[in-house]
Each structure stands twice: as C-alpha cells, then as structure tokens.
Amino acid sequence: MKQMEISEKAPAKLNFSLDTPFRHQNGEPEWKMVMIAVDLADYVHIKTLPDSREITVSTNSGFLPSDQRNLAYQAAKVLRDHYCINEGVEIVIDKNIPVAAGMGGGSSDAAAVLRGLNRLWDLGLTKAQLAKIGLEIDSDVPFCVYSEPALVTGKGEIVTPIGPLPPLKIVIAKPRDSVSTPSILRRINYGKITHQDVDGVVAAIKAGNYEQMVTKMGNTLEAITAERHPDILRIKQKMLKFGCDAAQMSGSGPTVFGISQKSSRIQHIYNSLRGFCHEVYVVTPYNLDKQNTCLK
Ligand code: ATP
User: In this protein, which residues make up the domain named GHMP kinase C-terminal (predicted)?
Assistant: First the structure.
C-alpha cells in the first residue's frame, strides 16, 4: 500500500563562518558561509490526504503562525504547485528549536517537509533539486535540505558539503530577545563591515585541523546585531572566559554558541550560564545522512 505519512527530523543550524561579499541588485545579500547542523531538532510529521486539497499546520508552540505564513506550509504548497499534485497535506511540528534565534528553525521545518513529501509523492528529486525549490521559501532552506557541514554561497542555493567536523561539543545560549533577520540585513553597510576568512575555515575543516578552524571562525553580522542586543557580547565574553576555544553569534542572532573539544568543559560552561541566560543547551554536530560523532 502507498505510504501516506512520514516523520522527519529537522535539525537546527549554526554558522561557523558568515560573510556577505556584496549585495545583489535586487537587494538580497550574496552569502559566503560555513554552516553546520546540530542535534537540537524539531520533529515534523507529514501526512498526505488524497481526498482533500487543504494544507494544515499545527505546532506545540503558541508563537507560530499555522497558516500560509508558516514556512512548513509554504514548502508543501511550493512543491505541490511545482508538480501539479492534487492532494492535501497535514503537518504537525514538535517545536524544540528556539524561534527567531538565528538557528534556522523555520527553514529546517520547511526542508523537512520538502524531503518528506519528495518520498511520499515518489518525486525522486535530488538534494540539489530540492535545495533549488527551497530557495523560493527562504535562503537557509537549501542548506537545511542537506543538514551536514557545508560551504553555502550565492543567495543560499549553492551548498557544497565539506566533510565531517573535527570532534567537538557546543554550548548554545539564547538571550531573551528575538531578532528579525530582515531588520539586520537592512542595516548592513558594505563599506564598513569586516569580512571573514571563510575559505580558511573550509580549509581547516577539510584538513581536520581544529586549532586552525577556531582561529578563523567569525560572523560579519555579529557587530550589527550586538549594537542593539549587547547581551550577545556579554555571553560571548563569558563563554571565552570559561574556556571555550571560540564563541560567536549564529546567523543574524541573537543566539551565541561556544565550542570546545572537552565535554567536561562544555558541561561546566552550561552550568555557569544557566543562571544568566534565558535558554542554554549542550549539543553535538549532526549529519542528516550519517551517525554523528559523540564525545564521551
Ligand atoms: P533565519 O533562517 O532567517 O536566520 P531564524 O532562525 O532566526 O531565521 P526562525 O525560527 O526560522 O528564525 O523564525 C523566523 C520567522 O519565521 C519568525 O518570525 C517565525 O514566526 C516565522 N516562521 C514561520 N514558520 C516557522 C516555523 N515552522 N518555525 C519557526 N518559525 C517560523
């Protein structure tokens, strides 16, 4: 019998390196980023409804739209329209990724819907094809289709996997504020921003060189978001003081993450930050296709 439902894991993303070399004529930034997925994830349950035309979305989060503004809804609609499919879709999202935090939660939910419906509707699309469709929804969706360490360029649609990360653990802290990505992107002054050595991070990961990787990491948007959200710099300084080898904001913020190869150190930093930060997590890099490396 034809399969009608599927559940997909939708991991959060972090930016190990983020730069924007220039702005396109239509106003969108050109991106040059190293992105990774982590094992803090939403779970997206997708059911196809042959006797309906409706797309419905429900979530366990009171803050999220459940209509066409939800990126998971948009993913189902875009894929259905592309392939002229006459079925309804029911989507239920167990939300764990903080919203509007720079961790790509909405984009990952959308990517999970694309992957799931690709299977349920037997479309046989490759990741590259799904990524191209995903760009119609949001610039982070193409990466989230892959959810493995990758160099991401173009408007977000060129995703080049770069192989596994050196073993490491990550502590994530989300300040209470949420940040609107478009409001940060509007404030980029291309004459003034500091560019990142994104190629240096890629080379270090490919060489398995953790020490080199941590010296090259950085996020061009951090200074812009931190002007209005000074907690970002306070958390970053605490992470570095407590012994993280690198600490920086993810995406357009305000989430800050720190990394170390020592699990015990990450656990200590988690304990120290819990009294100070709204939400704190310990996570491990995640690769959608493979088992992740866990430090004991
Ligand atoms: P970006 O990918 O732009 O960096 P983000 O990670 O900072 O985004 P998200 O959690 O994806 O933030 O939410 C961004 C906006 O998308 C919010 O305003 C939210 O209401 C909306 N949104 C729509 N659908 C979803 C969804 N399924 N999950 C989370 N947010 C969603």
Answer: 203-277
